[in-house]
Write a structure and sequence with these properties.
2 domains, about 250 residues, disordered C terminus
Length: about 250
């Protein structure tokens, strides 16, 4: 993963039922940012509290893009605003947050964690952004997406939450691959359930799905032994992901 300063872009509530999810839009936005010279550093998906009081579309998750390079901040913000406004589903309530990772305060990381545990209000997000100088925009009224977009930036900056839905070439993983081949796609480490790194020659049945977790600011893929073949490993999170739509992944 990039050692350059990272600019984080959180987006949430861009979809409606039966439309592509926020993760899909985030991947398209990343392509636009690469087009203006940004270096991609992955997109993470962050899960928030699922509660009847929260007006989420399907899973109440948000996405955070990370880019590096010489960035004209005003140009990037305007591009993101225009893109999200133009490409969000009709009737959605998008929120957009942009911040340098090294400028994200601990209070914002805590906000993201709180959003996973309790129902938050719009004014809490807006007040926190104003108090800490974090750039946060609601693209609709009610401003449903500001909580998730702000929370996603906080969690990504914290470096210990979320799953990469885009990083390097992970979406091209297919079939049987060695650990070395998987790491060449952009994954930092492949580990078992006890946090022990696998041998580079170990074989993993990717199930055509490599989505490493963000842990310790690194992309870590956790695997488990395949029930029918102890010499073969499979992604440990794959069964969980099957409950989610492809658009959110």
């Amino acid at each position: 993963m990039s050692q350059q300063p990272l600019l984080l872009i959180g987006i949430d509530d861009t979809d409606q039922k039966d439309t592509p999810g926020t993760g899909h839009l985030a991947r398209r936005l990343l392509d636009e940012l690469v087009g203006i010279g940004c270096k991609p550093a992955g997109i993470t998906r962050h899960q928030f509290l699922v509660d009847p009081q929260i007006p989420y579309t399907s899973h109440n998750s948000a996405a955070c893009l990370a880019v590096a390079g010489s960035v004209n901040l005003n140009r990037l913000r305007e591009l993101c605003l225009s893109f999200v406004r133009s490409n969000s589903a009709k009737g959605s309530h998008p929120g957009l947050c942009v911040a340098w990772q090294h400028e994200v305060p601990d209070e914002l990381v805590g906000f993201g964690l709180s959003a996973q545990q309790r129902v938050l209000q719009f004014d809490e997000a807006v007040s926190l952004a104003e108090r800490t100088g974090i750039w946060l925009k609601a693209l609709s009224n009610p401003p449903d997406g500001v909580i998730g977009s702000l929370g996603a930036v906080g969690l990504r900056a914290g470096g210990n939450d979320g799953r990469f839905i885009q990083l390097g070439q992970i979406r091209r993983a297919t079939g049987l691959m060695s650990v070395a081949q998987i790491e060449a796609l952009g994954v930092d480490e492949v580990l078992d359930g006890q946090d022990q790194p696998l041998d580079k020659c170990a074989n993993v049945d990717t199930l055509d799905w490599i989505r490493p977790r963000l842990r310790d600011h690194r992309a870590k893929l956790y695997v488990q032994r395949r029930a029918t073949d102890v010499d073969l490993w499979v992604p440990a999170d794959r069964s969980k992901s099957q409950r989610l739509s492809n658009s959110s992944q």
